Amino acid sequence: MENKTNQQETPPNGEEIHVQHVTLSQSNMGSVTAHSVDMTRGGAAKVKGDTVTIRQGGVQEVYADDMVVRQGGVVRAQTETLEVNQGGVVLATTKTAQFNAANAVAVVAGEAVTLSQSEAKVVLTRADVVVDQGSVQALVTTGDVTMDQAGAGILVAGNVKASNSGTFLLIAGNVSGDVKATFGPIESIIFGVVAGIVAGALLLFGNLFGRRFRK
């Protein structure tokens, strides 16, 4: 027998739910823990479940095996698989992630990440990344990156295959296809060395002048 909780009115702040299956509609909850959570146009401080689906809702923290966000937002998500459609996530720690017309501030993944018509500030992973008509400010992976009509600020990868794409700073073992880099692999290394020397010099001068003024 399945336990099902439907909430049509806003319950008291801080209320907690612990059942097998939860369906929330236009409700604001404190904490929700269930095997399956389905939220529509609602909100919660924390959600824990094996399967979590959020539609046009917002949650501060989500801990789940599988999570799907449709036109919703999550501040922090820790999942095994993550799918975001026309929504947003501030910080996602996951095994695999797929973003479709979505936004993310930071994504830390153990396996593959796909950005389709999506934007991300930072993506860190040990596996392959696909950026299709999207952009990422900083992408670091030990795997391969495939880009199609996409852009990246800083791109560090094992191999890069691109089509009609661009990046500011590129470091990769192998690059193929059409990718325009302001700083290529060699230039990026030189840029990093020079930037490190300049930063070290500024820090040294700052310490020297600081000591002089403190005397």
If you compute it from the alpha carbons, what radius of gyration comes out, rounded to the nearest whole angstrom? 22 Å
Mean pLDDT: 83
Question: Looking at the chains present, what oligomeric state does this protein adopt?
Answer: single chain
**Structural shape:** elongated
Residue ranges: pLDDT <50 for 5 or more in a row? 1-14, 209-214
Structural class: mainly beta
Number of helical segments with 4 or more residues: 1
Report how far the terminal alpha carbons are from each other.
Answer: 78 Å
Assign a percent range to the helix content.
10-25%
Strand content: over 45%
Number of strands: 15
Largest sheet: 10 strands, parallel, barrel
How would you write the strand order of the largest sheet? 6-7-9-11-13-15-14-12-10-8
Order of helices and strands: EEEEEEEEEEEEEEEH
Textual characterization of the structure:
The chain has 215 residues and is mainly beta. The protein has a domain at 1-89. The chain is 14% helix and 67% strand. It has one helix spanning 185-214, and strands at residues 4-7, 16-25, 28-40, 43-55, 58-70, 73-85, 88-94, 96-100, 103-109, 113-116, 119-125, 129-132, 135-141, 144-148, 151-183. It has a ten-stranded parallel β-barrel with strand order 6-7-9-11-13-15-14-12-10-8. The longest helix is centred in the C-terminal third of the chain and has 30 residues, at 185-214. The protein is elongated and about 55 Å long. The termini are far apart. The relative contact order is 0.06.
